[in-house]
Amino acid sequence: MKPGDIISIGALAERTGASVSAIRFYEKEGLITPMRSGGNQRRYLRADIRRLSFIRIAQQLGLSLEDIRGALASLPYGRTPNAKDWAKLAAAIREDLNRRIERLTRLRDNLDGCIGCGCLSMKTCALWNPEDAAREKGAGPRWVIGDRPSQMALPRKA
């Protein structure tokens, strides 16, 4: 390891735009792991610039710290992730984003009417969800999370 491969917390903050307190928080959460100098000062690998940048971007995309932790666990530690590493990670994040976009689109498209839980409009729900048939699929707004009235086994009228 060359001397330029190790940087201080201040240099890491400067390079990533993260505050020193944020870097310490990510360390406490186990997302980055510094080394310690002889004087017990935090020292980081140059690869941590990319790791920390990824953390900040992933948070902006709405990933939880647990999701970020899992993603980082798949990356090599001690070396800068390469294009193949990032492509694998990006593919998984893309799938998650696509699922969230689909769910948000359904929510947007159904916002003015019944969302399948019976709480917004009893008149509309009586048409789209007779006798609360959606409850058979589970709790929550069934139409928003992907179920469709056509998928429901509607109760038969006697």
Automatic annotation (TrEMBL):
Keyword list, A-Z: 2Fe-2S, DNA-binding, Iron, Iron-sulfur, Metal-binding
Domain of life: Bacteria
Xref: Pfam families: MerR_1 (PF13411)
Residue ranges constituting the HTH merR-type domain according to the UniProt record: 6-74
Keyword Iron: yes
InterPro entries: DNA-bd_dom_put_sf (IPR009061), MerR-type_HTH_dom (IPR000551), MerR_fam (IPR047057), Redox-sen_tscrpt-act_SoxR (IPR010211)
Listed transmembrane segments: none
Entries under SMART domains matching the protein: HTH_MERR
Keyword Iron part of the UniProt annotation: yes
CDD domains given in the database record: HTH_SoxR
NCBIfam families: SoxR
Protein name per its UniProtKB record: Redox-sensitive transcriptional activator SoxR
Species of provenance: Pacificimonas aurantium
Lineage: Bacteria, Pseudomonadati, Pseudomonadota, Alphaproteobacteria, Sphingomonadales
Gene: soxR
